[in-house]
């Protein structure tokens, strides 16, 4: 399998820059540090901070499982944008610790995951392209949309990372 | 390269089911057919109908270019949810017309695209994983978020397509 680390790393860097822009917005509008992390598109969707941590966790889970490694557990304790940037950096540090050759043959690995009450089994290829990547971009896009819908000055090129 | 058609086809089917749910909502609330297609998350983002057609176009463009085919041009004339479902179906029909072996070696193909004022050149692999797939999920997620933020009864499992 193509090493999945570079694409996740690229988009995590883009996510980190979205956090920078959110922080600049919070400063300009004199918002308390917890305001943007708690924004939601609608009451029964997860808040911004959870969209960010879940995106990070799909990148971490995908790279660990496809490389045959234990998935490291990061506690969900972030309350500020600075905390979230740290979570992204910690995720990127884990990804960069995985040797590229760990993904050789990963497309054929059997991957089991628990997603809430559901237990899912995939081939490595199906897990990556049909589950981890769609989920990663779902949560990254929702984080972006929360900022965008609340007037933070972000655009599509920020999402794409240049 | 792994044939990209099955994953795009799966998520286009999920998108079509989101359109079914949007239509059921429009009927229940007695909305005119053009109301949901014109919803936006915020005034300076594209409306729902464009999010759907752009998602379709990334799937169409990716599969055509990676297979070395001319990208078929579909006019953006949709005004109703039924029109959008037709656009998804037309996109899926094109994807299913491409023989699986057309993608052999596609990771190394050179892909040129114009994105607004920008001209971009990629390898096939980078185009698919770093551009077409992220864009496809960006627009599909934004379409989903527009429905979700407007009270349509859709959930994450609908996005994932089961």
UniProtKB/TrEMBL annotation, chains A, B:
It comes from Rhodobacter ferrooxidans. It holds the Pfam family DUF1993. This is DUF1993 domain-containing protein. InterPro entries: DinB/YfiT-like, DUF1993. The lineage of its organism: Bacteria, Pseudomonadati, Pseudomonadota, Alphaproteobacteria, Rhodobacterales. PANTHER family: BLL2446 PROTEIN, DUF1993 DOMAIN-CONTAINING PROTEIN.
